[in-house]
Amino acid sequence: MILAKVIGNVVSTQKNKNLKGHKLLLVKEVNFEGEFINNKDALAIDLIDAGIGDTVIVAREGDAVKQILGNGDTPVNTVIIAIVDNIDINEE
Predict the structure, then answer these.
(1) 48: which DSSP letter?
(2) What is the mean pLDDT of each run of 10 residues along the chain (92 residues)?
(3) Where are the domains positioned within the chain?
(4) Which of 29, 92, 22 is nearest to 58 (CA)?
């Protein structure tokens, strides 16, 4: 899993039948301070109604994603699984 920020929406009128009804978002990995840590963007299927600017937890393991979706035929390897409300780090 990674921490990421939603940076955009992806609109597709034609897509795999298993993706119909699911929102696609563009995400970029961030560190615990919310700073972008690489230049790679990723497409993620959104199951929790995240929006642009939200910090989210993203699963990028194909098997985990298939288990979450409950369908091994869906062509997805990245899924948003949580919106982050707060991050507390104990530095003791």
Answers:
(1) S
(2) 95 81 92 91 92 94 73 79 91 75
(3) 2-83
(4) 29
